[in-house]
Description:
By secondary structure, this protein is α/β, with parallel strands linked by helices.
Amino acid sequence: MIPNVLTVAGSDSGGGAGIQADLKTMLALGVHGMSVITAVTAQNSLGVQGAWELPVEAVRAQYRSVVDDIGVQAVKTGMLASAELVEAVAELIGGTDAPAVVDPVGVSKHGDSLLAASALASVRTKLLPVATVATPNLDEVAQLTGVHVDSEEQLREAAAAVLAYGPRWVLIKGGHLTGDAVDLLTDGSAEHWLRAPRHDNRHTHGTGCTLASAIASGLAKGLAVPEAVTAAKEYVTGAIEAGFALGGGIGPVDHGWRFRDGA
Length: 263
């Protein structure tokens, strides 16, 4: 049986992030991807021109339709937009017997807000406590905890601040720092430092969505959290290296890089 992975996220009309990136990642990694669309965005390589969230009842109906019939081996969340959506999705995940990867999406690659300020408390108190792995970048760490990271040494402080909200594991993504791309995965006890060379490529749209979906794919296959995250980091590093120009702004990572490399 092919493992089933469900993404609960927003649609990116440009195809580089969101639901579209999630499903491409899942296909590339050999799992069956399914989707619950929480919002529709008008989005391209230059930014987000508009966003419209779906009603909570539509999100809940999509989720129940998939989980009750098909079943899931892992769930991944992305853009949830509002407090109402965050709380509804947290309740749904809490009632699902499958690991959950929470990407607490706050802003787009272009700096556009994708989460209402009023939803932050719900992310902290409702969504993070049901996460198997939370994957915030440094901007999202600051948004959620007030901890501002300027150096690799501060990643531990950031991780502790996010773990205080209840996820089992947290992956603090240090991609916004200088030097190697360094991430810290920890459950508050074990630490796993993940390093990769920083590629000279500005076409990195969709990295966060892709990484979280890759982790969920690994968990669905039965990998332990450290192994799933390590494999996901390797996949995303290759996708960044192969990222390509699209439109007039920031292009996407290449989700199909392994197919083209023949790997």
